[in-house]
Amino acid sequence: MRPEAEVDPASARAPEPDALRWLSAEDTAAAVRARTMSAVDAVAAALTRIARVDPGLSAFAEVWAEEALGRAAEVDARVAAGEWLPLAGVPIGVKGRHGLRAAGALVAAGCVPVGATSVPGPGTPWQTWGLGAHGRTVNPWRADRTPGGSSAGSAAAVAAGLVPLATGSDGAGSVRIPAAWCGVLGLKTTTGRLPSADRTGLTAAGVLTRSASDAAAYWRVVAAGPDGTPAGPPPASAQQPPSAPPGASVPPGASVPPVPAVWSADLGFADTDPGIAARAFAEVQRLAAAGIVRLVEREVTLTDPGPTWLALRTQGGDVSRARTVRAADDRCLAELFGEVPLLLTPATPNPPHGHEGPGDRYSTALTWAFNLSGHPAASVPAGLGPDGCPVGLQLVAAHDCEPLLLDVARRAERHRSALVPVFDGGRDGAAPPAASTASTTDSTPAGPWTRSRRGGPHR
Fold first, then answer.
1. What are the Cα distances from residue 410, in Å, to 21, 210, 215, 337, 421?
2. How confident is the model at residue 432, as a pLDDT?
């Protein structure tokens, strides 16, 4: 149990809902543990924001107001009894109407689910959209664009400040794509590390947050064993510099060397929009200039994983050929991560599409390779594209190296301003003026070691 400042809870006033809109999960939990704010107040504020904003956003399929306030009261009682809860009183969204089943560790850590976030409805072969209680889920940056999917509502709710953290699942990019298009952080964990109901073994649990520290707090909770001891690598806050040899100690205040990283705009096959590639590479250059990464010149050429993924998910698919291609790409990635710890790509090859659908493009072109290989991956904000919508930079690391991804994401946040959409609840938004961060899109090349390939259709 960790000590917290003693405060008379009777003297603490309930905060205004908007005062907590952008409060992080960690700061919320710290205030609840210190009893400067109650879990009931934190959850009530989130419910008030949802009631006001969600009719236009439609990020939630269900809102569990009564149950959430009851759980929050239980959290306050546990805190008052002296129990230390790492995520005390944090209001969260859970993906889909059955998402509560996968949120047990978070609830045990003090999180309070306030509702089920939207996922795609029936009737489309594409999954980059959501259907909430008020209709289609809109992108908080542009209401005429989709937020991505299938963790659509989770990304939109976090981006719009309804909750600081929401769960997701990622079978082909379902966490990383909406994270990229909504301007938040989305983490896909190492496949098989956490429970999944997907019999094909392609889906991994994930989370959407506005900060790397909140994603790290999620990881510490879900990766912990029954006794609370981390079951794998140490959390980012306790990690050695990524390039330090195993077991090496780092003196306090010592500089952390940049992480060797390889950049690929297309993984050797994808039809990535030049503006998207340029925006993502501009973020890579910023990370390099800040001493966070060190670019290593190396080509990355995978076989397009789309047919393989589809064969494994489609009855009657050519599984034998799929296994051959999958094994070849696995060998390529094993060789890559044997040389460098980090791979950087755009999170998507295209910007957010309209609500009518993606047309003949696969928005998953750059993400589903890592569902097949099982590597952990994250999308972090890389600024705004020409259409005024966010662009994501994908970070990929070796198996079980989530702490490395989160550490790089945390360091990157220190050198950029947060992306905050101005969403007033309207559903007919046109394109906003492109922000200054998007101005490099037209002038910054997509980076070296890149081949422009116009290939097959993607969606």
1. 21, 11, 10, 21, 21
2. 45
Average pLDDT, the chain: 87
Rounded Cα gap, residues 251 and 196, in angstroms: 40
3-state secondary structure of 145: strand
- Taking the model in full, what pTM does it have? 0.87
Would you say 193 and 187 are in contact if contact means Cβ atoms under 8 Å apart?
A: no
Residue 227 has pLDDT above 80, yes or no: no
pLDDT score for 212: 98
Is the domain spanning 9-226+258-442 CATH 3.30.470.10? The answer is no
Picking from 455, 265, 280, 300, the residue whose alpha carbon sits closest to that of residue 373 is 300
CA angle, residues 210, 439, 381, in degrees to nearest 5: 15
Please report, for the chain, the start and end positions of each structural domain, with discontinuous segments joined by +.
Answer: 9-226+258-442
Q: How far apart are CA 222 and CA 231, in angstroms?
A: 9
Does the structure show a pLDDT above 50 at 440? no
Residue 335's Cβ-count burial label (10 Å; 0-12, 13-18, 19+) is: exposed
Structure confidence by residue, pLDDT tens digits, 55-69: 999 999 999 999 999
Catalytic residue list: 95, 150, 174
